[in-house]
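thread: overnight batch results

M.L. [08:02]
morning all. the overnight job finished for the chain we discussed friday. pasting input first so we're all looking at the same thing
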Amino acid sequence: MTSDSTAALLQSGNALVAQAQAVATQDFASARSLWRQAGAFFQRAHEADPTQHAAAFRLGQAWVAEAHALQKEESEDATAMWRQAALQCEVAFALDPHHAVTAMHIASCYAWAQDADAKLAWAQIAQHLQQEHAANMAADQAAR
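M.L. [08:03]
and the structure it wrote out:
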């Protein structure tokens, strides 16, 4: 599949996420259905190009939305879904190991999964990457 096809799948998924966010406070069941549909697009995008960080990360975010839904319903499956979301975000992080936002998502997933050690480790990675990014931005600004 071409990168154009992957981009189209991501765009379709993103459009469904926007729709879900627009209705989530009024109709959670509809929002959840839209998030699941978006997740299917993100899954296809990730399968189409497993080397693309955006596709892997958006799939992880879709699973985060599902984990939140399960948590809200007080489902016993929520913890397992948080772990699955964390693992998918780890796949995305492996594709872009300088992406602090991905590391923060992983830390958050592990916090919800009640894995304090993993949460702490990923939070430290995220903090290090944010500091590194700030230092690089300052160096770039000074070079101008």
